[in-house]
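User: structure tokens for this one?
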Amino acid sequence: MSYREIASRGTLTWAVVAVGARMPVAMAPLAVVFLVREREGGYALGAILAAVYVIGEIVGAALLGMRMRPERARPQLAVGLGVGAVGFAALGALPDAPAVVLAACAFVAGGAPGAAPGGLRAILNSLVPERAVAQAMSAESVLVFGIWAIAPAAVTGLALGVAPGLPLLLAAVLMGLSVAGLWLLPAGWKADESDRDGEPMLRILARAWPVYVTGAAGLSLLALAELVLPALLEQREISVGMSGPLLAGLAVSSAAGSFVYGLRRWPGRLRTQSLVCMLGVSGCLAAVAVLPTAAWLAVGLACAGFLQAGSMLTRNLTLREVLPPSALAAGYSLMYAAVGAGYAVSGSMAGALLSVTTPSTAILAGVALTVVLTLVGTLAEVRPGPVGGGGLAAASGGGAAGSVAAKVAVEGEGEGGGEGEVDGVVEAERPGPERRR
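Assistant:
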């Protein structure tokens, strides 16, 4: 497959809208810290506001994502992004407001557009041929990692060079423009709710829990490394100022990994690809915990970021296998919430561990926990379910999901390459021989 197959005016328009919707998300945590840092207890308040923002994202993604209807996605996305823009504007315009007011604005800014990542990803899938979905998701990941590489520098420059509230006001403008751009995209995507075989949405999504566990474990691992990195540099007697270049290198390598993943079909099932990538990331970060110099740390983080991209993409592609089309947007949103929860838990874990042990030991402890979660998710994902009785007990999205996965396997249309069928679903239901974020 080639990236040329996804190049079109529609996907270019989608990319512009996605930048407007996702750049504010990448800017927000650091922007709220700069907004209040000159107040008494400013850094502590900034950390609280960032946490409230992330909690809002988690709640919004989980609740609003499950309520999104494919045929009415555009107005729902527009309302969420519009309210989120208002939340960002209020934060930027009211830097001296009471902490409780700022917290409420941060929660709204994070929660209202919480369903946007999942909805926009579902729209992107509808804009490309089925056989090119892996390339589309790879391109989306490249875009997202690029945004996350640019956002910190933009926030720092605007907050310190112009005004502390300017990054948040810019975020409001970008999110508002993304609302207007939605009308240049399809109103939604095709999905027939009968593909659920009458099962409730919540039950279908709940059965995909192993995918969410491994997805959350993947990002929480890198989040732990990012949050502990400054302390680790001090432990190694390396300038803390190296944190920025090292994390930028991690983001760039993740973008490169996403691009490379979409260049070809890779051998093995999606589950196997994800497990290999996750164990590779764990190994890289375990090495980072003991490497002595900044150069070796850069190599370790770059390798971890490269492999992390593959892990994230295989998880999203797996959701397309185990969920029926009408549940995809909700599934993507729930994955977004799970990843956010993983990041939040990692932040708490990092703080707790650093108070009782060294930074290197904290990273190793996080690696060990992530490996356990990855193995639990992987083993649960392949547990067979009853034939014709709703699919895979732990990983399938229901009987219809099994039918979708079986159809993909029979037609040989692997989405990430190789054999990506969901064990237990495809092998029980397919009529003949034969595949994140």
